[in-house]
Amino acid sequence: MRVEAGGLPELGSGARDPAGARRQRRRRQQRRPAMPSAGAAAQPAPSPAVQGLFEACREVFGASAGAVPSPAGVERIKSVLDSISAADVSLTRNMSYFRRVNSNGIPKITYLHLYECEAFSIGIFCLPPRGVIPLHNHPNMTVFSKLLFGELRVKSYDWADASQDSTDAQLQGARLAKVKVDGTLNAPCATSVLYPEDGGNLHCFTAHTACAVLDVLGPPYDDGSGRHCQHYNVSSSAPSAGDSKPLPGDDGYAWLEECEPPDNFHLVGSTYMGPRIVDN
Ligand SMILES: [Fe+2]
Q1: Ligand 1 mean position, distance from CA 63 (Å)
Q2: DSSP conformation class of 242
Q3: What is the CA radius of gyration of the chain?
Q4: Who contacts 270 (Cβ-Cβ below 8 Å, separation ≥6)?
Q5: What DSSP designation does 101 have?
Q6: What is 104-146 written as a DSSP string?
Q7: CA atoms within 13 A on the CB side of 110
Q8: Closest alpha carbon to 272 in 113, 145, 115, 41
Q9: 155 CA distance to ligand 1 centroid (A)?
Q10: Å from CA of 138 to ligand 1 middle
Q11: For residues 205 and 264, what is the distance between their CA atoms, to the nearest angstrom?
Q12: Is 155 helix (H, G, I), strand (E, B) or coil?
């Protein structure tokens, strides 16, 4: 999902839209690695794990002409992520990030920003138990997700007709999607990868326990470049009775319609305090 501001104070419910949060952060911190604020505790020195991830991303996405790196590049980033642990980014499941709830007891999701440039971004989503990141897309992006700890339910989709014009889909009111993943991840597990047209480009996460998800997005969300983070609902019916595309195979497909971020989705930013990234 879309990354949010590192080094910023909590953004409150106004940051439910990760795209908006990203725009805020981009204005304040373009191409700068996360740094401690004045008076904050010193951020740990670079570590081989985090620095190695950054350098792999820089080389792979820097050499990629489009949104999808070469197969060798994908394997390189996957391999680096597979070897990273929560300890490498100074996270433990007893941290306050994994206990945050709003006044109604709804879990808040915390985003820790590590790095962003035009080619890629790195960040961590911290989910308390029962925390939900609702269904959203990653247009023209490749996304790597490494579950650092916890038990996470994942449901993802790809568009059944990836060539369909999104404007037509909007006019239709809903668009047919095929279920890609409907299951539960238990850390330690392999890094997941999604692509612009397959791998589960639209997904939602539900935390069964406290979970930390390290995400690499290439390239990052950017409204100006057509990479807008859009949320979706699963529609209970096809767009119209006369639609020529019935649900093939029933439960393997769903009609998705665009929606605003749910009111109970609270995404807040906190300062990443793990080993810093050196961009030189
Ligand atoms: Fe996502």
Answers
A1: 23
A2: T
A3: 18
A4: 6, 10, 97, 110, 111, 112
A5: B
A6: TSPBPEEEEEEEE-SS-EEEEEEE-TT-EEEEE--TT-EEEEE
A7: 26
A8: 113
A9: 11
A10: 7
A11: 14
A12: strand
Q: For the chain, list the domains and their CATH numbers.
A: 12-270 (2.60.120.10)
Q: Tell me, in angstroms, the distance from the centre of ligand 1 to residue 38's CA.
A: 31
Q: Separation of 246 CA from ligand 1 center, angstroms?
A: 28
Q: Closest Cα partner for 62 from 118, 114, 22, 3? A: 118
- Determine the distance separating the centroid of ligand 1 and the alpha carbon of 206, expressed in angstroms: 12
Q: 137 C-alpha vs ligand 1 centroid, how far in Å? A: 7
Q: Side-chain half-sphere of 161: how many Cα atoms within 13 Å? A: 14
- Residue 165: both structure tokens together: 């014009």
Q: How far does residue 1's CA lie from ligand 1's centre (Å)?
A: 2
User: Could you tell me which residues come within 8 angstroms of residue 186 by beta carbon, excluding any fewer than 6 positions away?
Assistant: 151
Q: Are 4 and 23 in contact (CB under 8 A)?
A: no
Kindly report the pTM of this predicted structure. 0.84
189 CA → ligand 1 middle, Å: 18
CA distance 95 to 11: 19
Six token digits for residue 170: 């909007």
Cα(16)–Cα(69) distance, rounded to whole angstroms? 30
Kindly report, residue by residue over 77-134, the tens digit of the pLDDT. Answer: 999 999 999 999 999 999 999 999 999 999 999 999 999 999 999 999 999 999 999 9
Per-residue pLDDT of 248-278, as tens digits, reads 556 799 999 999 999 999 999 999 999 999 9
Tokens of 120: 């890629």
Using DSSP's 3-state secondary structure scheme, residue 234 falls into strand
Q: Which residues contact 253 (CB under 8 A, 6 or more apart)?
A: 160, 176, 177, 178, 179, 247
